[in-house]
Design the sequence.
């Protein structure tokens, strides 16, 4: 299990923490106010760009260990998302796109497994195809020029409408590759900024 925070700087009465969960939070002022209201804490400053929190505290009123326990409890994540430990380093936009794409992939896989036992397309197959279409069309800004959309159009023309499940699978595969490419490109750009 990945740690909830890392201690970057620690002297008596002042501690700076790197907290990966701050990437997902937008209510930085509320978090600062909540921690500032605790007895013994004098000042809290969050730097959202680098996901750090600086806490100045009175070490006579509040011990370092109790302070770290407060931080740990506050940033403890409930594991609703089974991929949370893998996706914690992704930006929220990429995380939602990747999660949506993975859900579509699971639906497509289940529909493909069912296709061998069911001759005609059923509602589940239509749901998988529609979910994939939504995933592909909701990804990115210029939707028509995206490789996944172009792949879907070309596959539709070449395979025909009777093979919608296969067309959706090919389109989904290109979509997931495109998302991973954008994540890698974004990570390289963010490393070059610092």
Sequence:
């Amino acid at each position: 299990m990945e740690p909830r925070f890392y201690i970057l700087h620690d002297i008596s009465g002042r501690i700076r923490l790197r907290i990966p969960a701050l990437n997902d939070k937008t209510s930085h002022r509320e978090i600062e106010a909540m921690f500032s209201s605790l007895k013994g804490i004098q000042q809290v400053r969050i730097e959202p760009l680098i996901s750090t929190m600086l806490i100045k505290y009175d070490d006579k009123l509040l011990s370092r260990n109790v302070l770290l326990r407060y931080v740990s409890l506050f940033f403890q994540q409930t594991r609703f998302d089974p991929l949370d430990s893998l996706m914690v380093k992704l930006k929220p936009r990429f995380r939602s796109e990747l999660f949506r794409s993975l859900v579509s992939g699971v639906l497509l896989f289940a529909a493909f497994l069912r296709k061998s036992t069911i001759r005609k397309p059923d509602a589940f197959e239509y749901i998988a195809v529609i979910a994939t279409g939504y995933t592909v069309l909701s990804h990115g800004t210029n939707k028509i020029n995206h490789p996944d959309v172009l792949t879907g159009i070309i596959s539709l023309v070449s395979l025909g409408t009777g093979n919608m499940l296969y067309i959706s699978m090919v389109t989904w595969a290109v979509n997931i590759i495109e998302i991973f490419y954008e994540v890698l490109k974004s990570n390289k750009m963010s490393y070059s900024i610092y």
